[in-house]
Design a protein that fits this description.
The structure holds 2 protein chains of 2 kinds.
Chain A (H helix, E strand, L loop, with lengths): L2 E4 L17 E4 L6 E2 L15 E4 L3 E10 L16 E7 L4 E6 L12 E12 L2 E10 L5
Parallel strand pairs in A: 1-9, 7-9
Antiparallel strand pairs in A: 2-3, 2-4, 5-6, 5-8, 6-7, 8-9
Chain B lengths: L4 E12 L6 H16 L9 E4 L10 H4 L6 E4 L5 H14 L5 E9 L16 H5 L5 H16 L3 H15 L13 H6 L2 E3 L2 E2 L8 E10 L11 E10 L11 E2 L7 H13 L8 E4 L4 H10 L8 H6 L16 H5 L3 H17 L13 E8 L3 E8 L1
Parallel strand pairs in B: 2-3, 2-4, 10-11
Antiparallel strand pairs in B: 1-7, 1-8, 4-7, 5-6, 8-12, 11-12
Helix pairs in contact in B: 3-12, 6-9
The chains are: A mainly beta, B alpha/beta.
Chain lengths: ~140, ~375
């Protein structure tokens, strides 16, 4: 499997950057509210001119769970099904929900540092479809 | 308290799985039972609001019940379907245009978890394809934070479900009628950490109908009217944490449950401390715990002690989900909110049998919560 694509290019600031992705969020110029993914309308003040911004690529784990059963359609994954982690990561101005690279709840804790990575989500013929995910941040000495 | 609208007849088709009986037929069954309970004919009903999520068009029930020409309005509003139908019927009666009407809700869902198309909520396909369009994940993540913030343990999650199944065993119309121990609940397969299979409700089947009358004429139909003192519906405001949210605010400021509950108490003119029993959304056992406090029935963090002491059982100080709730009855979306009202009427009439709250309760409260961040609450009393 040599080819790859993002599950949705519009989620990223630069879809051609495949190994160190940055998520594209929205910031309302009127009230500074930040949302994800990009939307022009502001859910706080009703403005309709949000700017496209790069979201931070690191944050802290806000909450999490592990998905132990294979969801029905429209879920697409690899066979056989492996339980996967899901969580919200606090990026400062907004919490983003994402797949986690860890599926052991004992290895996850609220507040732990997380960083954005690329995660293979499913295959479409010979094409690997990637999504964004958060991984526990490597501790650098 | 307002005596403008009364519930004068109630009907139910048993919840659970009824092979060979359509959702529509379960709705018609409940409607006929409610009519008989009120001592009226279908031809006496001046209007109906009906709801079903996935079991057909409610207004097609007229072909079973009778072609009377009366208006029948379909309500399709997700988990708020029953509450929306009830609020609409209440307004119709309070307007003075009608004396007698019906609300009916029924459903029949396929087995397994609900699957929702992200596009129907304005969310990209990626969200579903990568496995995040799953309602159970939301409840799990909400309770993970809540347990950490308020020091609530796994055994309390199990204790809630243990009560649900114990009460389901005492309720002839419930789906899950076998009591389970807390250990069996904890040992069941994990669905979404920290919640096991027996801590969750399942999509199911069932039907409920209520006959409502203007308060002034309620005694024509029953000697035991139960008054709908208030019914309030709220959608989410900024700063709430909701199901199917690709993003949320770092600080949770509010929620539709607390908004709808506060509005329902204010409109009724009584407070949570005046409530004798409550039916609240228990999509999973953590939801019952969180909604106890969000509705104002207790303080945040107080739940573990109340549950451990048995105070949320029918003979406790704050009886919650006396019919076994959604955990024991299953979730037929169109019927769930109305089931809560049905059970409250049974309790206030003193007809709830082995699960009857002692001491002739006078007041009840109901609460539903659902996607994409809505809540409907009612206050009822004799």
């Amino acid at each position: 499997m040599s080819e790859r694509r993002w599950v949705d290019d519009s989620l990223f600031v630069d879809p051609s950057e495949t190994t160190s992705p940055t998520l594209a969020g929205a910031r309302c110029p009127r009230c500074s509210t930040t949302t994800f993914p990009y939307q022009s309308g502001c859910p706080r003040c009703g403005g309709d001119a949000a700017e496209r911004i790069a979201l931070p690529t690191t944050g802290t784990l806000w909450s999490f769970t592990v998905q132990y059963f294979a969801p029905k359609s429209p879920y697409r994954g690899f066979e056989p099904f492996e339980p996967y982690g899901v969580g919200y990561v606090d990026l400062g101005d907004v919490c983003v929900e994402a797949r986690l690279t860890v599926n052991d709840p004992a290895a996850l804790a609220l507040g732990m540092p997380m960083e954005l990575v690329t995660l293979p989500a499913f295959a479409e013929g010979d094409v690997r479809v990637d999504t964004f995910a958060f991984a526990p941040q490597e501790v650098t000495a | 308290m307002s005596s403008d609208v009364a519930i004068v007849g109630i009907g139910i088709h048993p919840f659970g799985r009824t092979e060979g009986v359509s959702g529509r037929a379960q709705g018609a069954f409940a409607a006929r039972q409610a009519l008989a309970d009120a001592g009226v004919e279908w031809s006496d009903i001046q209007f109906t609001y009906g709801g079903s999520h996935s079991a057909g068009d409610p207004d097609s029930l007229v072909s079973d019940l009778g072609l009377t020409g009366a208006p029948f309005i379909n309500v399709h509003n997700g988990c708020g379907t029953g509450g929306s139908a009830l609020i609409s019927a209440r307004s119709a009666l309070m307007s003075g245009q009608y004396d007698l009407g019906m609300v009916v809700g029924f459903d029949k869902h396929p087995r397994g978890a609900f699957n929702t198309d992200p596009a129907s909520l304005g969310i990209g396909e990626w969200y579903g394809q990568t496995g995040m369009m799953v309602t159970t994940q939301f409840f799990a993540q909400k309770i993970v934070r809540y347990m950490a913030e308020h020091g609530i343990g796994h055994e309390t999650l199990a204790a809630v479900a243990e009560k649900s199944f114990a009460l389901g065993a005492l309720n002839p119309n419930a789906w899950r009628r076998k009591a389970l121990t807390a250990q069996e609940i904890l040992d069941a397969p994990m669905v979404n950490h920290p919640l096991t299979q027996y801590m969750f409700c399942s999509p199911g089947e069932g039907g409920i109908a209520l006959v409502l009358a203007r308060g002034e004429v309620a005694h024509r139909y029953t000697s035991t009217p139960v008054y709908l003192r208030s019914a309030e519906f709220r959608s989410r405001r900024f700063g709430s944490f909701e199901v199917f949210s690709p993003w949320t605010t770092p600080e949770t400021l509010t929620g539709p449950t607390s908004d709808a509950a506060a509005a329902a108490f204010e409109s009724a003119g009584i407070g949570p401390e005046d409530i004798d029993l409550a039916q609240i959304q228990d999509t999973e056992s953590g939801a019952e715990i969180m909604h106890m406090a969000e509705t104002g029935l207790c303080a945040h963090g107080e739940q573990e002690k109340l549950i451990a002491e048995g105070q949320t059982r029918p003979d406790g100080r704050l009886p919650i989900n006396t019919d076994g709730g959604v955990i024991a009855n299953g979730e037929p979306i169109g019927a769930t909110g109305l089931r809560q009202v049905y059970e409250t009427v049974m309790q206030l009439r003193g007809n709830a049998g082995q699960r009857q709250v002692p001491g002739a309760p006078r007041t009840g409260f109901t609460h539903v919560y659902g996607a994409p961040g809505i809540s409907a609450c009612t206050v009822l009393s004799r």
